[in-house]
Model the fold of this input.
Amino acid sequence: EVQLVEAGGGRVQSGGSLRLTCAASGFAFDRFTMSWARRAPGKGLEWIATIYPLTRNTDYDHSVRGRFTISRDDAKKILYLDMDRLNPGDTAVYYCFRGDQVHDSDALRGQGTQVTVSS
Done:
């Protein structure tokens, strides 16, 4: 089955850190661009980071650049998002996506994991 499964969300105090994981199955993970996006309460889906295959080059939204790090383990088929210096504005449901078109309704994405940052 082709799927993405996120894990690692939770509640953390402002200034804290979390690591999210996204386990991929059913497709050639190492050949695909992978991304993270989030949806904050009452807001739309926001792209935050992308990592490309082979080169592992990365792109970040300005809101997370310097605080979040996207990485991948192609052997394990896992996508990571290391989040540091979290603040209440980072509270959202976080999703991993195959590809970088996170607003494409046909894009493969996981079920999401909740991150709550308290002040």
